[in-house]
């Protein structure tokens, strides 16, 4: 069986195709905009570099992070916690 995306609404087909290409996490996007490495962010925030890596790669959900961790990351990145959770 195949999915008849050629018969679907164009937007549905585009959404499905984009689902195959994961985008960067908000944490990673903000970190890159600030021109920080994961290691530098770890030093600035006090959050373990392994945790940062896991949040960025989707191994751990940042939405389930402790409030204190979110605060430390947001402060180091000069953004809001909501920006990290988008």
Features:
single chain, 86 residues, mainly alpha, 434 Repressor (Amino-terminal Domain), 0% strand
What layout of secondary structure does this protein have?
Elements: H1 10-18, H2 26-33, H3 38-45, H4 49-57, H5 67-77, H6 81-85
Could you characterize what this model shows?
This protein is mainly alpha-helical and 86 residues long. It has a single domain (24-85), classed as lambda repressor-like DNA-binding domains (434 Repressor (Amino-terminal Domain)). It is built from six helices and no strands. It has helices spanning 10-18, 26-33, 38-45, 49-57, 67-77, 81-85. The longest helix has 11 residues, at 67-77. The protein is elongated, with a radius of gyration of 17 Å.
């Amino acid at each position: 069986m195949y999915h008849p995306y050629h018969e679907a609404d164009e937007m549905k087909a585009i959404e499905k195709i984009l689902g195959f290409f994961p985008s960067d996490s908000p944490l990673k996007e903000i970190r890159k905009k600030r021109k920080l490495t994961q290691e530098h962010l770890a030093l600035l925030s006090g959050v373990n570099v392994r945790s940062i890596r896991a949040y960025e790669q989707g191994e751990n959900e940042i939405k389930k992070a402790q409030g204190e961790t979110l605060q430390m990351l947001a402060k180091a990145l000069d953004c809001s916690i909501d920006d990290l959770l988008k």
